[in-house]
Amino acid sequence: MWNKNIQIENRLKYWLLDVKSLSYRISNIAKLEIIPINARKSRIFSNEKKIFVYKKSEDLYLREVLIYADKLPIMYARTILPLEHLRGFWRNIKKLKNKPLADIVFNKKKILRSNFKFRKPSYNDEFSKRIRRFSLKKTKILAIRESTFRNKNEKVLLTEVFFNNFDQFQYSDD
User: With 70 as the cut, is the pLDDT of residue 88 above it?
Assistant: First the structure.
C-alpha cells in the first residue's frame, strides 16, 4: 500500500524526504557508482501500469540500475516511460548508461516532480522479489519511494528502493 508519509526512525528519513538529486548528494560524500542492469524483457509491475493508463507493458520502456556508494549497494532504481516518449526530450534516458537520471531531470527547470509516495517492503512484493535476484548479501530493503517527473505532457515514473546500507552515510543539507 502506497502512502503519502512514511514512519522511519533513523537517518534514512532525511534521504527519503529529499526532493533534490540523491545521486549528486551521495557523490559529495562517497564514491558513487551506478550499475545498469542488463536491458532485457522485464515485467512492468502492476502499480507501474496504473501510472500509464491505457498502456500495455510492451509499450513501456524500463531502465533499471543498482546504485553503490563506497562499494556498498544503497539503492535500486527503476525508471519507466512510454516508448513513444523516447522520440522527444526523454530519449536522453537511453543514453544515460551508468549516469544518474538526475543528469536529465534536475538540469531543466521546466521539469516538475510530483509528491512522493512511500511504502514499506514486504517479503513477497514485486520489488523485494526483483531485488532478491541480484544476490546482494546482507542487504535489506528499508523503504520504497515513487515519484513522477513531467516534461510538458510526458511523464516518467521513478521508483527508488532504499537499502539498509544507506544508514552508513550521514545526511547533510548542503
Answer: yes
